[in-house]
Specification:
It is a single chain. By secondary structure, the chain is an alpha/beta fold. It has 2 domains: 160 residues, no CATH class; 150 residues, Rossmann fold, CATH 3.40.50.720. Helix 1 crosses helix 4 and helix 6 packs across helix 11. The longest helix is centred in the last third of the chain and has 18 residues.
Length: 322
Amino acid sequence: MSQILKGAPELALEWHRAGRGAALATVVQTWGSAPRRVGAQMVVSGDGQIEGSVSGGCVEGAVMVEAMDAIDSGKGTLLEFGVSDGDAFAVGLACGGTIKVLLEPVGSVISEEVLSGLVAARADRKAVAYVANAEKGGGILIREGFEGRFRMDQSGVEEDGRFVAIHNPPLRLVVVGAVHIAQALVPMARIAGFDPIIVDPRSAFGSEARFPGETILDEWPDEAIQKIGLDARTALVLLTHDPKLDDPALHIALKSDAFYVGALGSTRTHAKRVERLTEAGFSKEVIARVHGPIGLDIGAASPSEIGVSILSEILSLLRKGA
């Protein structure tokens, strides 16, 4: 359903294969309030084209020059920049500091095989870590371990000096029921970094006018969810109050790797939902995956407040675990 936009790894591979030369520049350490997180990347071609960023604009020019030299020499290097208070203020920071950027020419330092494997994993929505020497680069792909880093989307340098760049699939939020709560929840989720998908067979609810610019599937939830696929980077929110719509979707979700499954309804409504799921053969442990009544108990009353409580519960589970 979703498609990975071309990021630094995809462009680096494309430019390398086109014979233009390419180097990946990756932030491995930075000051506390930096505009880009550790793991942020920029790609530089041998003819001086750049995409992405490693700061708010104060070091990109210097990184480009060093990257083109690295492409010519075929050697990886670690750049360190001291950012002045004035430059930091210009890009929205309170004070200056230090930023370290690892340069890795494609082909000579980061191999085409490893880079193509990374690009393939990103396209297939497979979580993977790129693990390299923090000063010279040149790494491998690892799919297991680093559970905390994967959960927190947190790249960084390990105690043994290895740099771990986390490449998680984009987060998705599947919302079944294009109701008022969804109108508040969807834009908040997008701001928080989720790619929302709205599912509702009732075309009057799931309309472009009510959800401008969003992906809307005018299909029965079970059919839509089978088409979308629910993986470990997907949250499912059921808002219809209608068992005919919610229950088939729940049956699929509880057999999936979705990291969050929540359903709107009162305590009494949820109790009836549990009864139906039990009759359908789901165990108590599996049914316990359903967050119902949905959302953190913050006393939410309006649709917007309920949206806040739902998104808060999703983020809490994502970052802190069960």
